[in-house]
Design brief:
Helices cover about 0% and strands about 55% of the residues. The chain has a domain of about 140 residues. The strands form 8 sheets. It has a 5-stranded antiparallel β-sheet, with no helix packed on it. Strands 2-31-30-29 form a 4-stranded antiparallel β-sheet, with no helix packed on it. The protein has no helices and 31 strands.
């Protein structure tokens, strides 16, 4: 194991709208081989979040089942390098990595007034707190090779309320990401080499729009005909954007007396499945999908798209690849008998390497798929 890095705070083809995966002809030479980084210390689960152009992985360790158990950020480059948190036994999570091995995410900061997460940038043996004010909370979600970092944050106001904010950070300078006129909540998720950011703007949980920001200014990407809501999930350097859209969202709220007090329960239901889209040249079109939820998570500069599909009851997810107009099950493109089920594909680089979430051998695990 390399030294700990200190944090300085200072398928087969699938039908377009329906159908099941067709049987993949037995191939003497599978398309991908698998690399298993292995579990973390003390049996922790290794969760991959970001993939660099040369195959390094950024992610976190968490206990199986993982609620209220500290996450620990790491970088994998043939072996794990732990990225130290800001506070003893504090949480941390790596969310993304660029081609210069700069890693971004969040760390727990324990201040005199409040304990909260701070957006962080790690590089070699140094790290930077991107939130500035100790009363702020935030996370860094994306970074490009120019060092432009996408941050979502909550600013603590004098009265104790939290005000959401999103911005791009570079060399200590912040550029605000403006909301759409009637959708004040901004959640950016990705940035390309030109500094174009994508994500969503929303009004609560009932209305969302897929958004592209240039120079901090928002642009609504529109909707597929059958949809009322949308969000963008990734963008490549050519400006191609992928995401999902769906039908009506309904907010539910319940209150009832319990143990001498009032118990409050809120939740959201969604009509219909998630529809995957590709936006390019000013137009949005639907990608091939199954009857259940179909979600693209990443797109590389060759136009390869990766993500996941589920059945009509939104269960049994499978990792997939969109390529040349076809939807392929990645489980059919790896050697038989590995013992792994590839459940989700979260990143793809220009080498064609794919970072996936998998289940097998008694554990959940991130794996790296590399073309043969």
């Amino acid at each position: 194991m390399r030294p700990t890095i200190a944090l300085l705070l200072g398928f087969a083809v699938i039908g377009v709208a329906s159908g099941q995966p067709a049987a993949n002809p037995a191939a003497p030479h599978p398309r991908y081989h698998l690399t298993d980084p292995g579990p973390g210390p003390n049996g922790t689960v290794s969760i991959g979040r970001g993939l660099s152009p040369s195959g390094q992985i950024a992610g976190c360790w968490t206990m199986p089942g993982g609620h209220n158990v500290p996450n620990h950020a790491w970088l994998w480059d043939g072996e794990f390098i732990q990225l130290w948190s800001a506070a003893p036994n504090g949480d941390s999570e790596a969310k993304a990595i660029n081609g210069k091995n700069q890693v971004v995410g969040w760390v727990t900061y324990r201040g005199a007034v409040v304990t909260c997460n701070h957006a962080a940038l790690w590089l070699e043996d140094k790290a930077t707190d991107l939130n500035g004010q100790q009363s702020d909370a935030g996370t860094a979600v994306a970074i490009n090779d120019a060092g432009e970092i996408v941050v979502t944050s909550m600013k603590r106001l004098a009265g104790g309320e939290w005000q959401p904010r999103a911005y791009v950070w570079k060399n200590g300078k912040e550029t605000n990401l403006e909301p759409l006129a009637d959708l004040p909540g901004c959640n950016p998720v990705a940035i390309n080499a030109r500094g174009v950011v994508v994500g969503k703007c929303s009004h609560g949980a009932a209305r969302l729009r897929a958004v592209r920001w240039e120079g901090g200014k928002p642009f609504d990407l529109g909707l597929l005909p059958q949809c009322l809501n949308a969000q963008a999930t990734a963008i490549n350097d050519a400006g191609q954007i992928v995401g999902t859209c769906w039908g009506k969202l309904t907010l539910h709220h319940e209150e009832h007396q319990a143990d001498g007090g009032v118990s409050v329960r809120s939740w959201t239901t969604r009509e219909g499945p998630l529809h995957p889209f590709l936006w390019e040249n000013g137009k949005m079109r639907e990608l091939p999908r199954l009857e259940g939820d179909t979600t693209p998570h990443a797109i590389n500069n060759k136009g390869q798209i990766v993500g996941s599909v589920s059945d009509e009851e939104r269960r049994h997810p499978r990792a997939v690849l969109w390529e040349n107009g076809k939807l392929l099950d990645l489980n059919d493109l790896i050697p038989a008998g590995t013992g792994w089920t590839l459940r989700d594909a979260v990143a793809v680089n220009d080498r064609g390497q794919i970072l996936v979430d998998a289940l097998g051998k008694g554990r959940a695990q991130c794996l790296l798929l590399t073309p043969n």
